Amino acid sequence: MEIVQLENEKEAQDRAVEELNSVLKGNQGKNILFLSSGGSSLRLVEGIKKEHVNSFLTVGMSDERYSEDSSMNNFAQLMETKFAAMAAKQGVKWIDTRAQGRTLGEAARDFEADLRTWQENSNGVIIMTQGMGADGHTCGI
Predict the structure, then answer these.
(1) Which of 1, 23, 27, 91 is packed most tightly, with the most Cβ within 10 A?
(2) How many whole angstroms separate alpha carbon 21 and alpha carbon 41?
(3) Angle, CA 63 vertex, CA 51 and CA 41 arms, to 5°
(4) Is residue 52 within 8 Å of 83, Cβ to Cβ?
């Protein structure tokens, strides 16, 4: 793992998108779990190149807010991106963390079950983005 700290937000986003595309390209044909953080980090998914997106890719959230309100729920916001529309056409699988009438316990159980199902991939690669909020929080489910 390499930790890179950059002062300029645009430079940091460009570097993260470059790294994300590089890892996706380098692992074509392998099952990939991509967990995206929410907030401004969702802008990173818009830079993912279409040629790196296929049915081997599973996408979920590394940071989620349990809420029926789509303006609060990170997965709901992810599904509003151009990336989500493109990825759906490419056969991407999703780990849906929207509340959808489930209790918090049910949502947690389903999330864990989805992760365990994905984990059955013997040659899988996990990619995760993690941001830091202005208040110092990182991520949580």
Answers:
(1) 27
(2) 15
(3) 50
(4) no
Q: Is the pTM of this model over 0.90?
A: no
Structure tokens at 121: 């991939």
Residue with tokens 């709901």: 76
**Distance, CA of 30 to CA of 74 (rounded, Å):** 26
For the beta carbon of residue 108, count every other beta carbon within 10 angstroms: 15
Q: Is residue 34 a contact partner of residue 40, using CB atoms and an 8 Å limit?
A: no
At 45, list the tokens.
Answer: 């998914």
Tokens representing residue 125 in the block? 């690669």
* Average pLDDT, 10 consecutive residues per value, the chain (141 residues): 77 89 93 89 90 95 89 93 95 96 95 94 85 70 54
